[in-house]
Amino acid sequence: MAQQHNQSPETQDSALEKAFNKVLTPLEEFIHKETTSGFLLMACTVIALAIVNFGFIDTYQHMLHAPVGLSIGSWVLEKTLHHWINDGLMALFFFVVGLEIKREVIVGELSDIKQAALPIIAAIGGMVVPALLYVAVNSEAEAANGWGIPMATDIAFAVGVLVLLGTRVPKALLTFLVALAIVDDLGAVVVIALFYTDTIYLGALGMAAGLFVLLILMNIFGIRKPLPYFLVGMLLWLAMLESGVHATLAGVLTALTIPASPKFKPSQFSKLVRGMLDKFDLCHKPGMSIMRNEEQRSILQTLENGVHLVETPLQRLEHSMHTPVAFLIIPLFALANAGVPIDFSTLGETLNHPVTLSIMAGLIFGKFIGIAGCSFLAIKLGICKLPQGVTFSQIGGVSLLAGIGFTMSIFIAELAFPGQDEYLLMAKSGILFASIIAGICGYLWLYLAGKDNKQA
Predict the structure, then answer these.
(1) Which of 174, 214, 352, 416 is least surrounded by CB atoms within 10 angstroms?
(2) What is the 3-state secondary structure (H, E, C) of 370-403?
(3) What is the maximum alpha-carbon separation in the chain?
(4) Rounded-to-integer distance, Cα 333 and Cα 339, Å
(5) Using CA atoms, how far apart are residues 389 and 391, in angstroms rounded to an integer?
């Protein structure tokens, strides 16, 4: 029989003190999760490439195209596994993106127009120039629909690479990249909504509009529980799916209606908590565990309920949803979409294909020219200034890192080339090669341009 090792009270107290001393700001928690997600994303990408290029491509394709359905009476909704991942699970990804955008606009880096001006201008340049460069390089009319592919930046990959540099880059540069990437995500959402919709069914679109209004009214009338929003959000997803507009946008629309104000004021919460803690101390009985002390257990539950009431629903949902999205949904997306067969005998032809070339040019050169160039002009014209402690050379390095398109670029490629396997293969090849080159070059640039920014 195995021995059970119990921690001493001193060890438990030390662990508890350590847990409470580790206070992360929302931005630090966000960056930590994005960094870990970026590394997991890299691993899943390598696994998908290995599966496809080491003799398992038929099994891979068979699994992705396996039908998965839901039926209620005579109503049936059946899609392939690949479709469920890209249109179903990714709606939750876009839900988190919507929460992040709303938070940044209300209280984050985008809430102060003076502070937000530089990343906004840089992001716009980083979207427009790659799209123009794609069209300029790609002369094939059939492939022109892929102009939105090089506009995107993968925040998880880009932040992951930047964090690897540690103290060689200032925190303000990391904040700049996060703000830029979130504006970039917003731009991608707008592009998907406006330009990657073929046929619109007005009846279903009208139903979606009605459900969106219902979500807004729920916010106005003070409904704070997440469940009603998720239920209406699911109906909105179904309506969007039938309308012809990409269903994942339902995630963003639902997120924008989530309440962003707390039920309790911080001062009121503090007063109540202090009273509860006094009661907690009075109920303490030496030698009795918390499991046996009913009064203390009740007080702890009350404190937990109070914490949820002083938090905003937006803050709580972003915190709870970020982990499954970052560590499950995005890696699944990579496994389902990064499986690109690489034939080294025809690698030259692949790299010379107009779609591959235009995407690589857009992500590597377009992002760099757009972000660095627009930032330079904005600073020289006096519209905005560099973040404190950040050099323009470091902005150039971040401009290269922004060329890591991956998740959002692959997502747009799937929309741009439905049923066009050759173009889709070339697009994914261009995204993979460009992301690798941009990541390596951006890292080396910032490593050489950086200095030890560690503060005492």
Answers:
(1) 352
(2) HHHHHHHHHHHCCCCCCCCCCCHHHHHHHHHHCC
(3) 79
(4) 10
(5) 7
Does domain 25-196+246-261+312-449 match CATH 1.25.40.10?
no
Count, residues in the chain: 456
**Single-letter residue type at 361:** A
Token pair recorded at residue 144: 């022109």
Question: Taking Cα atoms as reference points, which of 325, 184, 318 lies closest to residue 248?
Answer: 325
Question: What is the 3-state secondary structure of 440-456?
Answer: HHHHHHHHHHCCCCCCC
Cβ atoms of 372 and 396 closer than 8 Å? yes
For 40, residues 6+ apart whose C-beta sits below 8 A from its C-beta are: 326, 327, 330, 331
Q: Which long-range contacts (CB under 8 A, 24 or more apart) does 159-162 make?
A: 159/31, 159/34, 159/35, 159/38, 160/34, 160/35, 160/37, 160/38, 160/39, 160/41, 160/42, 161/38, 161/401, 161/404, 161/439, 161/442, 161/443, 162/398, 162/401, 162/446
Q: Give the predicted TM-score (pTM) of the model.
A: 0.82
CB 325 within 8 A of CB 96: yes
> Over the stretch 341-400, which tens digit does the pLDDT of each residue have?
888 888 888 889 999 999 999 999 999 999 999 999 999 999 998 988 899 999 999 999
As beta bridge partners, residue 69 has 78
Residue 296 C-beta-side C-alpha neighbours within 13 Å: 13
**Could you tell me the residue ranges of all domains in the chain?**
25-196+246-261+312-449, 266-308
- Give pLDDT tens digits for 384-411: 989 888 999 999 999 999 999 988 999 9
Tracing tokens 């529980």 back to the chain, one arrives at 225
Q: Which amino acid is at 91?
A: A
The DSSP code for 77 is E
